[in-house]
Structures are given as C-alpha cells and as structure tokens.
Amino acid sequence: MRSILFLLGLCALASAKYKRYDGYKLVEIIPSDVRALHTLGAWNGETSLDFWEEPSSVGEPVHLFLSPESLEAVGSVFDYKVLSETIQQEIDEEQARLKSRVPTPYFEYDDFNDYETIMAEVYDLADRCPAGFTCATYAIGQSVEGEDLIVMHISKDGESRDAVWIDSTIHAREWLATATMMKILQNLIDNYGTDSSATDAMDKYDFYILPIVNPDGYKFTHSNERMWRKNRSVNPGSTCLGTDLNRNFDFEHGTSGTSTLPCSDTFHGAGPASEPEVKAQQDEMHRIMNSGQNIFAGISMHTYGRYWLMNYGHALSGTCVVSPDHDVQFELCTKMAQATMATHNTNWAYGPMCTTLYAASGNTIDYMYGDVGILYTYLPELRGSSFVVDPNQIQPSFEEIWAGLHELFTHE
Ligand SMILES: [Zn+2]
C-alpha cells in the first residue's frame, strides 16, 4: 500500500511539472490599421506574450494564446474573437493517449513520439536502407544541452548526384512538422521500389535529412511545457531561456522581424549563429557544397497556417528584399503549392516569406539561399489551427506535402 501511495505521489509530482494552461484562450485579433499592427508588432518583440500567428499586415489575423490575466490586458486594447478555450483539454487528451501507448518506447507513424523514440526509429530506418543505397547517420554537432544533432545522408552507391536537404523541428512545439518529416523519411526508405514517386526521388537525388534541429526544445515540450518554441540556451543577465533558432542564422541577422530581448519568442540570440544548433547546420551545408556536391533544394518544415514560403524572409529598412532568382523560385513554389492544394482540396498561400507572411531575418531558408547558394529553398507551414493537433492529421499532412515535394523532385 505504501509503495502504491509512493508511486501515486511520484506520478502527481511528474504531472505537476508539466505546465498547465487552465483558463488560457486562443484568440484572434485583426489589426485594423497600421497603428494597431505596430502595437502588436511591438508586443511580439518586447513581451513574452505567446503569438501563434505573428502580426503580418493590416487586416490579416493575429493569433495569441493568453492566460486570463493577459487576456484582460490585451482585451482592454483590442477587440478579439475566441478561437479555442479547449487547448488544455486537448493537451490532457494528448498526454493521456501518449502515456497509454504500450509497449514503450514504440514508434507510431500515425501519432506523435518523444525524442528518444524518434531517434531510435531514425536508426532503424537507416538499418532498413534499400539495397544499393547507403543511409549514413552522423552527428553534425551538439545542442546546448549536449544532444547529438543527427543527420541521415542517403546516397546511391557508386553515383555522385545533387542533393536535397530537409529539416524540421527547429521550433519545438510544432509536433506535426516532426511527424510529417518522419513519414517523408519513411516513404523514401521503406517504399523505394514500390512507390514510384519515392523510387524516382531516391534514384535522382541524395538526401540529407535533419529531423530534429532543436532536440532540447522538443524534449522540453514533452517534459515541461507543451508550448515551448525556442532552444534552451541560457541568456546572461536574463531569467528567460532560449533563442528563436529560426531568427539566429548568419544572414542579414537582426534586420527585421526579430527581437533583441531574451524573453521574446522571436529573440534572435546573442549574435549571428550564436546557437550551436544553427552553427552546426550552417557548417554542414557548407561542408557538403565545399565537397563538390550541389545541394539542389533546401526544405525547412514548420507549422501552422498552410503556406508554402520561399526566400526572402528579411526586409531592409522596412522594405522586403526581393530574391534575384525570384522568378524561377516562384515558378516552382507555385507548382508545389498547387499540388499540395489539389491533394485534399485545401487553400494555401505561397510566395516570398516577407511579402506573403511577415518579415523575419536570420531564418533557415534565407541563409540556405543567400549564404550557401542553394537555389530552391522553401518553408512549408503545415495544415492545422493549433500546435496541438489530432493525430489523424498526420497522414493527410504527409500526403499533401509529399505532393508538393514530388513537384520539386521532378523539376527540371
Ligand atoms: Zn515554426
């Protein structure tokens, strides 16, 4: 009896550690003029308010996830519409479902998985590498907390070819991006020889897959805070942890849509590529290119909002910078977005990040194109209306993103 009570006590302790969002609401605000837009933009950069859809332009919805106290303060300035009051309930259901899965660890492609289970599956996939290919896993560096940053390189024996780079989970809470990424990797490896689209892709390109850019953050969303976004680096002089890795790349760092304040979710870090997760990715992409292998395309996966975004994301002096290769990049972006939309009859926006969504400097795809010289770089913001997603969305998400990628793989 005593041991049962002890165990119950431990369980209570463990679950108490996981942050609760009781009473929180996901709300939508439509900035009606430039002044309102600037106010929201200032809050995004200067406060720890949790923006799920960041301010972009007048008339475009902004989503905020707010505690009762924050909602009272925000509601005194803006009219808002409540989109959801059930996020905590959905997290409870998600946790109950994940904890009830047996045996553990056990990778489930149609549900979400913790970090260790995902990495075990990545190594299992490497072991299932099709005959005639090599699936090499290797660390490109370590995270702030010392986790290896694992890339899988898929190559065809005896052939030197252009490569496609795909990464996901730079933002910790975007679990659907991770799950969609794993289905893409599985399709390439397990369906080679049976699925014609996967077979053609594998026969044409090398792949470099980095499923989890931000392991510390992803682990933290499972252990402590479901809504954590950044990495877990300590910021000297601040009690707030973490840098937004997708604002930390060393290309036009800090010019637009980023924050200098560590408590902001868009904090761009102490300096360009100050974060080891970013430095490792930059160095690896350069290493590949310097070895003589051309990276044909780079994809960086996010949720949510249904966008296919391309470079550039940054603005200079408040003006979006236009890519010198805009026309060819946009042509392929259009094909990818249309293929995605046709898959499940959904509506997606597409085009340069800065003009289509918002300005954000130091992001992955700007660096890939602007610094590494990868011509085709895209950032899908996947389906959904929250970071907590029903697992039945994973398969359609994979199908529509794969349809877009198929256009990329077959592009001449
Ligand atoms: Zn993201």
TrEMBL record:
SMART domains (alphabetical): Zn_pept (SM00631)
Active site: 381 (proton donor/acceptor)
Necessary cofactors: Zn(2+)
GO BP annotations listed: proteolysis
Domain Peptidase M14 span(s) in chain numbering: 111-412
InterPro entries from the UniProt entry: M14A-like_propep (IPR036990), M14A_act_pep (IPR003146), Peptidase_M14 (IPR000834)
Signal peptide: 1-16
GO terms assigned for molecular function: metallocarboxypeptidase activity; zinc ion binding
Keywords for the protein's UniProt record, in alphabetical order: Carboxypeptidase, Disulfide bond, Hydrolase, Metal-binding, Metalloprotease, Protease, Signal, Zinc
Cellular component GO terms held in the UniProt record: extracellular space
Family statement drawn from the similarity comment of this UniProt entry: Belongs to the peptidase M14 family.
Protein name: Peptidase M14 domain-containing protein
Native organism: Capitella teleta (Polychaete worm)
